From TrEMBL:
It comes from Acrobeloides nanus. Residues 16-110 form the MADF domain. InterPro entries: MADF-dom (IPR006578), TF_Adf1 (IPR039353). GO terms for cellular component: nucleus; transcription regulator complex. It holds the Pfam family MADF_DNA_bdg. This is MADF domain-containing protein. One of its GO terms (biological process) is regulation of transcription by RNA polymerase II. PROSITE patterns: MADF.
Amino acid sequence: MASQNSGLTEDEFIRKLIAAVEKRPVLYDVHLFDYKNKNKKGENFKEIQQELRDAGASEQQVQFIYKKWISIKRKFRVEFFKLQSEDNGKEATCAYPYYESLKFLIPYCQYYK
């Protein structure tokens, strides 16, 4: 684990963020009643901030988790639809290193902008 001052590596930070979000469906499951509840989402992101601090993330990393999550989710959505459109008879591969970790988002990709 990295020290409090230096934080986690970018890869460690992203993987921990993905795992933390996956445990909180209100942040990605558009079918949940509270999905559009900004207060619930805010509470969950505050929990994630603390979880990441406890894991060694720097304050700078923790400060921008919402923007980071939106960026990660958008990149996954782009890659998902790109792979869907590559219907050439062979299994498409994805260069996005977090694609496998984000597959829990597949049922909701059509709803994300």
